[in-house]
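FORM 12-B: Structure-to-Sequence Request
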């Protein structure tokens, strides 16, 4: 199976598909799958741009909307995770994963799917210690602070991935596992990106949970992006001697190493995206403790669903089939000939794919659950205890202060052509 791996997309779908077409022609090959490692920017219309964290000059529609509207069709099945520049309102609707456009599948905030016989897992967002232990408290439309914390990885999503026992072939994270540079040509990396040096020496460059997952899942391949450079490494796991080949790629720009073809051993097709039985069982089991507030998340085992849903999911999939629920266009796509009425604001909206999946798993819909913060805004005329208000505003202030020193985002924003 030939898989094209791409670093950060930054909305450049047209260019990546054109590059894939060119490679297929020149090398006389067929590419079976495209994997994008985040900063995908799935903006359906102008409203979605308001949920995209990036400097205003980069807030443009780019090319995704054409695939959302049906004007263009993705020529290769495409799988992606979220990074730190996303239409976060749209990805939140598809928290459990789903089609963002025909033939383009989002893996979810964390998720595992099957493609043919290959098992692919992913973790969206970037690591920031400050928000790691909190729940998913952000709801669209986002304020300035939530716009930047919504893409910070949460422990809950990582914990679900740590409950995977069956082998995973490929794993994708947007930021690199911390310490991965020790397994490749770190001197060369520092020569190309001297401003990484201090963070590398302090071992603070990258994602702590990604490293934990790398050691737990031991996939054959691990792909990342975010730092906008190419870097390869080989990790040999101490426990069983197995090997993970790590590859990070650049973003989609002329003359940059943004795309690489990887040949993965696999049975012949059909190569289609399918639900993963073990992952759906994990989703079912952990939904009872889904943290949706700003509070620190503690897993209290007595709250966790005791049942192992593997057999239950298997039986349900046998009846229904394993293909994901169909893509549904649920907001008007961007129309270059007219600007969208601002009244249809990018507030919470239930995606029919998510509703269908939750019905299938017999789970309640929780993604629009109000949190303390949104209640505070909605009920601002009510008297709240000073304690709550002070606590919230402190959280917001320090979160903002922290964002400005956060290397990954900072590095990207400094990048002239981010
Ligand atoms: Zn990024
Ligand atoms: Zn990027």
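FORM 12-B RESPONSE
SEQUENCE OUT:
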């Amino acid at each position: 199976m030939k898989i094209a791996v791409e670093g950060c997309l930054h909305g450049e779908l047209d260019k990546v598909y054109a590059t894939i077409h060119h490679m297929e022609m020149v090398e006389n090959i067929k590419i079976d799958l495209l994997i994008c490692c985040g900063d995908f920017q799935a903006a359906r219309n102008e409203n979605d741009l308001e949920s995209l964290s990036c400097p205003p000059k980069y807030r443009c529609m780019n090319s995704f909307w054409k695939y959302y509207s049906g004007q263009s069709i993705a020529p290769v099945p495409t799988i992606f995770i979220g990074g730190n520049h996303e239409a976060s309102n749209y990805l939140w609707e598809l928290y459990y994963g789903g089609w963002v456009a025909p033939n383009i599948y989002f893996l979810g905030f964390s998720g595992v799917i099957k493609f043919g016989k290959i098992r692919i897992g992913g973790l969206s967002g970037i690591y920031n210690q400050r928000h790691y232990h909190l729940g998913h408290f952000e709801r669209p439309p986002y304020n300035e602070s939530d716009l930047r914390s919504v893409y910070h990885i949460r422990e809950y999503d990582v914990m679900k991935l740590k409950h995977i026992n069956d082998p995973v072939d490929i794993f994708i994270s947007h930021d690199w596992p911390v310490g991965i540079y020790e397994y490749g040509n770190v001197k060369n990396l520092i020569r190309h990106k001297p401003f990484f040096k201090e963070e590398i020496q302090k071992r603070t460059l990258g994602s702590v949970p990604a490293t934990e997952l790398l050691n737990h899942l031991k996939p054959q391949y691990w792909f990342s992006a975010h730092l906008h450079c190419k870097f390869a490494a080989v990790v040999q796991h101490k426990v069983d001697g197995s090997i993970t080949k790590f590859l990070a790629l650049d973003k989609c720009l002329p003359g940059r190493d943004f795309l690489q073809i990887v040949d993965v051993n696999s049975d012949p097709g059909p190569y289609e995206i399918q639900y993963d039985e073990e992952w759906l069982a994990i989703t079912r089991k952990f939904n009872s403790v889904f943290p949706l507030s700003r509070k620190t998340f503690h897993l209290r085992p007595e709250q966790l669903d005791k049942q192992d849903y593997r057999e239950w999911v298997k039986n349900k999939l046998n009846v229904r089939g394993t293909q994901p629920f169909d893509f549904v266009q649920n907001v008007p796509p961007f129309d270059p000939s007219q600007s969208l009425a601002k009244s249809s604001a990018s507030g919470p909206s239930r995606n029919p794919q998510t509703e269908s999946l939750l019905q299938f798993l017999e789970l309640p819909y929780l993604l629009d659950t109000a949190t303390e913060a949104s209640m505070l805004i909605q009920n601002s005329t009510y008297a709240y205890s000073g304690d709550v208000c002070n606590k919230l505003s402190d959280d917001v202030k320090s979160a903002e202060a922290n964002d400005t020193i956060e290397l990954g985002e900072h590095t990207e924003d400094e990048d002239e052509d981010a």
